[in-house]
Amino acid sequence: MSRRVVVTGLGVCAPNGVGIADFTYAMQNGKSGIRFQPKLEELNFGCQIAGEPLVKDNLVNRYFTPLQLRGLNASGIVYGVIAGLDAWKDAGLPLADNDTPDWDAGLVFGTGILGVDKFRESIHLVDEKNVRRLGSTTVLQTMASGISAYLGGLIGCGNQVTTNSSACTTGTEAILMAYDRIASGKSERMLAGSCSDSGPYVWGGFDAMRILPRNHNDNPTAASRPMSATASGFVPGSGAGALVLESLESAKARGAKIYAEVLGGAINSGGQRAEGSMTAPNNEAVQRCIIEAVQNAGISPSDIDAINGHLTATAKDAQEIENWCRALERSGGDFPYVNSFKGLFGHCLAAAGSIESVATILQFGHGQLFGNVNCEDVHPEIAERIDVSRIPTKTFSYDPKFIAKASFGFGDVNACVIFGKCND
Questions:
Q1: Cα separation of 346 and 314, whole Å?
Q2: What DSSP string runs through 119-176?
Q3: SS3 assignment, position 41
Q4: Domain boundaries, the chain
Q5: Tens of pLDDT along the chain (424 residues)?
Q6: Cα(176)–Cα(166) distance, rounded to whole angstroms?
């Protein structure tokens, strides 16, 4: 039989808060992390705003040794290590000793584009025929699994240590991959999360596609407008989120605090068939993913109290709400409460699913649902399908039992995880 899996640790490095305390305050109070970026103006970007974590040097020094910091030029790795180690510490778990790894601990930590600034630096040195100046850490910083390698070594994981990459679905997929490993009895505890680099070399391609807002450079906090009639594109973001998943037996045996239970979920793809493409979802696949997630969690669609959607502030928001309505067979005033956190920190790409999952889970412990910002003018197609009261604009007291969190990514890939309040 499948074992029950719970969340016992959280860590985050987000544009609107580094560390759980600051992040929680920001989410509760609608504090935005989207800011004007002078470097984007200098490079003639149309969109000159972004969500980027504010990480001070003295904070970084707590997580890396001077030797590890030498030549370190990969912001995603910095974000991921901060979030990952914070989550491990929050769970009350020790680092393995120097002689033996923890055979029951592993991690799945995903990313999209990692070490892009290090790549640029390396290409320049190679082209200048200065290969010897690349340094011994270049490979670690530029390989996709660099983040899992860093964290696996720092923690001392002896179980599976790997990196996944599925565009915007990466973080949510990582959680479900870690969940499956524990539920099947192959591990007792797993660190799950994802990270994304900052900077123009990551965000430039999206600016070229003209899917980023260009009319809010002088008003950054109003730019990201999920589910709004005046949404004009997603604001790029970066950072990392991390969750410690653990078997319920292990958590109870050591008296760990439990944030929530991972009840199950589903991962699929639309195969870029029908209306699906590299950048657009196959609606049938999205609906099937949600339906299968609910079934896998062993609950009914009517049990879902709230949804944390993908909802990026693009033309696809209305279609996503339609897909939720069809999958859950709920609409109007019967629709669950729904929120999108991208209004506060933008679309953090590969890190989106994990950062948003951390925020989703925090709602259980605080007995709240966090509000949507910049959504006073609900998109008319959304207002036709669900009552606007289901889209709260302010944080309010609520005791959710079941929350569905979904991510839908480039390449027509989908993931939906069901979190539940744990009463054991």
A1: 12
A2: HHHHHHHHHTT-GGGG-TTHHHHHSTTHHHHHHHHHHTB-S-EE---BTBTHHHHHHH
A3: helix
A4: 5-253, 264-420
A5: 689 999 999 999 999 999 999 999 999 999 999 999 999 999 999 999 999 999 998 999 999 988 888 888 889 999 999 999 999 999 999 999 999 999 999 999 999 988 888 878 888 888 888 887 887 778 888 899 999 999 999 999 999 999 999 999 999 999 999 999 999 999 999 999 999 999 999 999 999 999 999 999 999 999 999 999 999 999 999 999 999 999 999 999 999 999 999 999 999 999 999 999 999 999 999 999 999 999 999 999 999 999 999 999 999 999 999 999 999 999 999 999 999 999 999 999 999 999 999 999 999 999 999 999 999 999 999 999 999 999 999 999 999 999 999 999 999 999 999 999 998 8
A6: 13
In CATH terms, the fold of domain 5-253 is Peroxisomal Thiolase; Chain A, domain 1 (3.40.47)
Same CATH fold assignment for domains 5-253 and 264-420: yes
Tokens of 358: 């951390």
Question: Looking at the DSSP assignment, which residues form a beta bridge with residue 409?
Answer: 413
**Domain 264-420 is found in CATH 3.40.47.10:** yes
Query: How far is it, in rounded angstroms, from Cα 70 to Cα 290?
Result: 45
Query: Which position has the token pair 């979904």?
Result: 406
Q: For the chain, how big is the Rg over CA atoms in Å?
A: 20
The whole-model pTM stands at 0.97
Residue type, 372: N
Please, are residues 375 and 233 in contact by the beta-carbon 8 Å criterion? no
Q: At what angle do helices 317-328 and 283-297 cross, to 10 degrees?
A: 40
Q: Which two tokens stand for residue 107?
A: 């991690």
Tell me the residue type at 53: P
Angle at Cα 217 formed by Cα 212 and Cα 223, nearest 5°?
Answer: 55
Beta-ladder partners of 168: 166
